């Protein structure tokens, strides 16, 4: 029973980190920088299976490209002499899809933890009543 809780809890933890990365990406999608600076780097969560049981863990958080996309905005205070600024090259549609997947994965893992906990508590009650 405890293996079920451990496995689901590790899955929830990975999905929570994924939610954090996606929210960082979405929060910084419109951050302009000068063309001489690096653009915000998109964050990617990499998970791996734990060798000791059927759980997962975040093995690393990878960063995307700093190149970004160059946009002509001569009125932007960060614009270079030619009127260009740099934005992160992050696709909002992709991020929304990742957000939905991470959220549903998190919810599913939390539901497993709650159901396993309830089953364990019910088993304890049976032992008390016997």
TrEMBL record:
Pfam families, per the entry: Flg_bbr_C
Name of the molecule in the record: Flagellar basal-body rod protein FlgC
Annotated Flagellar basal-body/hook protein C-terminal domain residues: 81-126
Record's keyword terms, sorted: Cell projection, Cilium, Flagellum
InterPro entries: Flg_bb/hook_C_dom
Assigned protein family: Belongs to the flagella basal body rod proteins family.
